[in-house]
Specification:
CATH topology: Glutaredoxin
Number of strands: 4
Largest sheet: 4 strands, mixed
Strand order of the largest sheet: 2-1-3-4
Shape: globular
Number of helices: 7
Helix content: 40-55%
Number of domains: 1
CATH class: Alpha Beta
Structural class: alpha+beta
Order of helices and strands: EHEHHHHHEEH
């Protein structure tokens, strides 16, 4: 099980703190430092859809050119997320083909009790 994100992200910090408090061992992958592959992002998109993964409310999105923001589709969104990983909603929890985006305590409890 891997938690993907950026170590300085407040939501990632909450998820990591929750996992630690619940004595769960989760590998952390900082995609700013450790990078992301196109295959990884495509796998997440295949499970949850690019609209769920792509953060249109982020500062990074607001800083994109109007051309980049226009006519978004899956292919373009994946390219943008690979070029600007901070466009990915965080954290991304991934295990055995399952993907959970963001951190809500109730969702994490449900995830770990299945």
């Amino acid at each position: 099980m891997t938690l993907f994100g950026i170590k300085n992200c407040d939501t990632v910090k909450k998820a990591r703190k929750w996992a630690e408090a619940n004595q769960l061992t989760i590998h952390f992958h900082d995609f700013r430092i450790d990078g992301l592959s196109k295959e990884q992002v495509e796998a997440w998109v295949a499970v949850i859809g690019w609209e769920t993964l792509f953060n249109k409310r982020s500062t990074s999105f607001r800083q994109l050119s109007d051309d980049d923001k226009k006519d978004l589709n899956e292919t373009k969104a994946i390219e943008l997320m690979l070029a600007h990983p901070t466009l990915i909603k965080r954290p991304v929890l991934s295990s055995e083909g399952n993907v959970l985006v963001g951190f809500k305590e109730a969702e994490y409890k449900a995830w770990f009790t299945r």
